[in-house]
Amino acid sequence: MAETFLKKDFASIVRGLLEDLASGEGGRVAITDATEGSVVRTLAEAFSRELAVAYAQLDQVYQLGYLDTAHGAALDNVVALLGLSRRRGGYLQGTVTFTRATPAPEQIPIPQGTPVAGRDVPPVETAAPTSIPRGGTEATVSVRSVEPVPAGLTPDELAALTAPGVLDVMPRPLHGVEGVTNRVPLVPQAQDETDDELRERARHRLSSTNLGTPQSLQRALRSLGLSHVEVQEPFQDQPGYVEVVVGDVDFDDTLRERALRAIEETRPAGIRVHLRGVTWVWVQVEASLELDQERNEAERRTIESELQAQLTQYLSGLKAGESVRESKVRNLLASHDNVRDVHARRTAAGTTGSLLRAFVENPATGELEEQTHRRLLRNGDLQVGTTERAGVELRKRQPEPFLLKLEPPGPKVRLRAELQLRTSAPAAPTAPQAEAKLDQALRAHLARLEQEFVEQGTPRVLAYAGLSASVEQEIAPEAITSLRFSVVHERDGRVLELVKAGDEETLEARERLELGRVLVPGGGGGHG
Q1: Most buried in the list 86, 140, 220, 367, measured by CB within 10 Å?
Q2: How far apart are CA 63 and CA 59, in angstroms?
Q3: Neighbours of 233 (CB within 10 A)
Q4: What's the CATH number for 210-277?
Q5: What whole-number distance in Å separates Cα of residue 224 and Cα of residue 369?
Q6: For 244, which DSSP code?
Q7: Domain residue ranges of the chain, discontinuous segments joined by +
Q8: 66 φ, ψ to 5°?
Q9: Residues sharing a CB contact under 8 Å with residue 34, sequence separation 6 or more, in sequence order
């Protein structure tokens, strides 16, 4: 396949011309005097030099028409076809650090031209390729803004615009990268953009000029500093209708107007785009954590702070419509080096069966209302709708987002109960009903003892009188033939029988109280 433009040098032109003169083709007289200094060779070389210069000039013109080979003013003319111009001094430059929480299993490349944004900050792009190495957690690379610094800023406004931490959003998320920030201030660029930098920016513009896709809408909104943007096509029978759901906490009316303008500039003709915010489902995590050893108050506060930070990172990273997984929350709590076991917290009404609770703001009153009962799935997860987003209510409002009780390690004290029914009594329940009532009564009694232990710090006391009174609130006394309680202390296997008559036996305990076996003879079952 012939080349589009074949450049000939001086030597090849001379050689070809002398060969043509000596061939005598077309009935011409063959001219063969090609010795150095001859008239024929001198004339051939003079003509060949001028032709070689013309070839070189044409080659230069040819090269100046392409992005990879143009330079200087010619490159400015080439990139002008894409609507770009060379950046002069006044643009921001600095460095950003891409991070992830855990060591990278493999190298994670971060290409040149990766956009980074922040609220009210000119968007920037990485000026060189980099990567998070295998086993590493971060990578730092230089960046330059794609827009100049606004004119007329005061020194204080410029300092706020370029302060550390102002860049914190990746408009185009990278797989394996969880966050980005500038750890040092940005500074105004003093030099003009180089040819190589301009070429790379033009290549990136070529790859991003494909508008009319969900990715282009998402990228346009992320460039405003919005970090949670979902583009959905909810109705298969309505082609051309798109919903854009923004899940940022501070998505106010000003940002909405800017987002609408960005959508109008990006969407193709004939596509209807509906912009909406999310309904927030505020999550509360309530758990009892058994530590690996006895810890002082300062160590407990440090552990709790670290756990809260991990939970906040997980819950804040959930997308619109993404459910909250109890298994993920439990694993985050259990993965701490100082946590041995994780349990659902118990209340006076017993355990919720999950570590999670959900609250939604009532539009009429502005108060948070609990909706755990209608959102809690059988596996303990919290269900979130497609136009909702789960998050952490960190503002000074109730309820508190995290209720973590850190307990010292130690053996447990288990309570076992055995109930004999008088089936002939009018108020006698069936065996399954009696078992459920007995279980509920004992759990509520243990929860009250635990609450008293938390509030007063005194040992918890198990006594027959208190236990039987709690049971008789659920089951009529005339339906009970006998009621026995025994306590097993797991430290040494000691068993204590709580009796009704004579000197009443009691047990004082500082360890965790748990319900063991509940038995209703004659038809009831047992469970731990």
Answers
A1: 220
A2: 6
A3: 12
A4: 3.30.300
A5: 33
A6: E
A7: 10-63, 91-192, 210-277, 280-407, 413-519
A8: -120, 150
A9: 18, 22, 40, 41, 44
